[in-house]
């Protein structure tokens, strides 16, 4: 049976057909690549060699701690050896350079082991989130023609083995399912390592290292090919800005697969610097604060709703949080008043980060004054990050005015993976990425995020593409039309609201029926509309399009 994708837009099959092998991952024109190499940004490093070098330089230092349920640790040497054995085992099962492997693990040590094993053989991890379900996983596996899918046995009350069996049945390329834990009908990850060296000849630095997911504005998430060269440059830059070194003890609170905790400066930045990464199984203060005390955590990254919860819990905490030096907050707009309260409540410094999986990352700086740290979202990592702020017609706005943010640079992609039709509009002709964010620039070069032009809901850092959810709801037999919009929410920043027009003569429905319908389609729980309103008609713009702005401004936001 064909894989169900919630979109008709530039569908995966048509785009795959339109793509030649060399065009899978669009790359920088040669003159740009030369410039970035000459500037010392791209140094020809790869992740596989990076870990090897760190293991040689400080073999007995602790690289990784997985505290639950029993505390497990990996020295740099152990992580390096484990990556070798696992890489050899993957290779023995026919997984090789350029193959895609969908990786869906929560914050467990196996996540880091598998990623480095795949880096070593040049297979590309596709970073699914733990919340993804049949629709998303089925799409990632079929669109990337994945040969393997890596899962936990159960996580957060959900059996991933059953999902894997369903996806495998309808995805002919998928030859392996590897399970961290009890494998059921699949293969135990623990049985994969073999006592041999991994194959010679790893990936080249200019090749993609992995496929990251876009937040997305379209029916299905686009995949982001990041190279060893470009990503490692962003790690080095982030480490320098955040003061990451061998003494850093970084707590991974958000899902490890997300670009923010991976690279800003994240667990990969910390490993690059020879520091220690501690994985946090759940993000609540009850779980995280005891870990901060026990593991002497110095740094972490949070989305704004979590930063709020931690700020509220900080003053009353019984744990000693004094090791914490720096908390990064980003992924969604962090309110100024909330930002002011973080340092007094947690006794550490705050840094705002405004980044995107496509590349560009902005940080406030350690030597910025407090006003700048609480009122701006930072400035770019690199002197070679090019920023354009333009009006609707594409002309530069006056300095200090707000407009659309376009960017190009040494770690911002030039195109999504196998998506030529989408790339034609997501990037300008001269290679600038249209971020969809509305920003203004202060005299010091810091950016302030003022809003968004893209059709997306930012639910506390988790991105929802309304089109994807609209397509699902439209399949309901009683639904005539639907429009999903963002509504303001005190805690999450935004929540999703589905305006639904029922078919003439259809029995009235309760909001819960629509929510259940979406959930039963098998999508991540954060995409299920928070609110559902039944209406007779949508407000329209002058040209007859549904006006999402007017829907937003008329939204009633009572509890459901
Ligand atoms: C991060 O990455 P994505 O790919 O999940 O989302 C990117 C989008 C941005 O285009 C912007 O719309 C929004 O998320 N965003 C922010 C923000 N940080 C991200 N909006 C306002 N204020 C901020 N501080 O979210 C991401 C990637 C790397 C580091 C940090 C965040």
Automatic annotation (TrEMBL):
Pfam family membership, one: AMP-binding
Residue ranges occupied by any AMP-binding enzyme C-terminal domain in the UniProt entry: 468-545
Positions of region (Disordered): 1-29
SUPFAM superfamilies per the UniProt record, alphabetical: Acetyl-CoA synthetase-like
Keywords, ordered alphabetically: Ligase
Domain AMP-dependent synthetase/ligase: 51-417
InterPro entries (alphabetical): AMP-bd_C (IPR025110), AMP-bd_C_sf (IPR045851), AMP-binding_CS (IPR020845), AMP-dep_synth/lig_dom (IPR000873), ATP-dep_AMP-bd_enzyme (IPR050237), DHB_AMP_lig (IPR011963)
Recorded metabolic or biological pathway in which this protein acts: Siderophore biosynthesis
NCBIfam families: DHB_AMP_lig (TIGR02275)
Protein name: (2,3-dihydroxybenzoyl)adenylate synthase
Gene source species: Actinoallomurus oryzae
Lineage: Bacteria, Bacillati, Actinomycetota, Actinomycetes, Streptosporangiales
């Amino acid at each position: 049976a064909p894989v169900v994708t919630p979109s008709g837009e530039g569908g995966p099959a048509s785009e795959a057909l339109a793509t030649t092998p060399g065009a899978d991952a669009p790359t920088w024109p040669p003159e740009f690549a030369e410039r970035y190499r000459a500037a010392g940004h791209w140094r020809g490093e790869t992740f596989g060699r990076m870990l090897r070098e760190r293991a040689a330089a400080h073999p007995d230092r602790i690289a990784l701690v997985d505290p639950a349920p029993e505390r497990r640790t990996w020295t740099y040497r152990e992580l390096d050896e484990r990556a070798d054995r696992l890489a050899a085992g993957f290779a023995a099962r026919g997984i090789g350079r350029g193959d895609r492997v969908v990786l869906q693990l929560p914050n467990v040590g196996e996540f880091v082991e598998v990623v480095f094993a795949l880096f070593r053989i040049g297979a590309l991890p596709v970073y699914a989130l733990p919340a993804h379900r049949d629709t998303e996983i089925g799409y990632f596996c079929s669109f990337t023609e994945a040969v393997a899918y890596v899962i936990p046995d159960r996580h957060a009350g959900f059996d991933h083995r059953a999902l894997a069996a369903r996806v495998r049945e309808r995805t002919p390329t998928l030859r392996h399912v590897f399970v961290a834990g009890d494998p059921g009908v699949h293969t135990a990850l623990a049985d994969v390592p073999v006592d041999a060296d991994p194959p010679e000849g790893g990936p080249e630095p200019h090749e993609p290292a992995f496929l990251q997911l876009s937040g997305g504005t379209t029916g299905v998430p686009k995949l982001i090919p990041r190279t060893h060269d470009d990503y490692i440059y962003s790690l080095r830059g982030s480490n320098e800005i955040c003061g990451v070194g061998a003494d850093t003890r970084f707590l991974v609170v958000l899902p490890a697969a997300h670009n923010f905790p991976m690279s800003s400066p994240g667990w990969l930045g910390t490993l690059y610097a020879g520091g220690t990464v501690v994985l946090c199984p759940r993000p609540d203060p009850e779980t995280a604060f005891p870990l901060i005390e026990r593991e002497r955590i110095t740094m972490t990254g949070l989305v704004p709703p979590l930063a709020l919860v931690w700020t509220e819990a900080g003053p009353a905490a019984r744990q000693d949080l004094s090791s914490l030096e720096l908390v990064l907050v980003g992924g969604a707009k962090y309110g100024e008043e909330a930002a002011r309260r973080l340092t007094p409540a947690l006794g550490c410094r705050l840094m705002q980060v405004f980044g995107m999986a496509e590349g560009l990352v902005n940080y406030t700086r350690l030597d910025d004054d407090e006003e700048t740290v609480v009122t701006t979202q930072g400035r770019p990592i690199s002197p070679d990050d090019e920023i354009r702020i333009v009006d609707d017609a594409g002309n530069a706005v006056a300095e200090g005015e707000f407009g659309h943010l376009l960017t190009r640079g040494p770690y911002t992609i030039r195109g999504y993976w196998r998506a030529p039709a989408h790339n034609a509009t997501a990037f300008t002709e001269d290679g600038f990425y249209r971020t969809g964010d509305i920003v203004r620039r202060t005299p010091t070069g810091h950016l302030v995020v003022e809003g968004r032009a893209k059709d997306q809901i930012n639910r506390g850092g988790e991105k929802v593409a309304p089109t994807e959810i609209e397509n699902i709801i439209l399949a309901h037999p009683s639904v005539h039309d639907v429009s999903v919009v963002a509504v303001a929410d005190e805690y999450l920043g935004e929540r999703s609201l589905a305006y639904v027009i029922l078919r003439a003569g259809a029995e009235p429905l309760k909001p819960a029926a629509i929510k259940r319908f979406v959930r039963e389609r098998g999508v991540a729980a954060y995409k299920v509309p928070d609110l559902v309103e039944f209406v007779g008609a949508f407000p329209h713009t002058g040209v007859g399009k549904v006006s999402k702005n007017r829907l937003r401004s008329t939204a009633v936001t009572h509890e459901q």
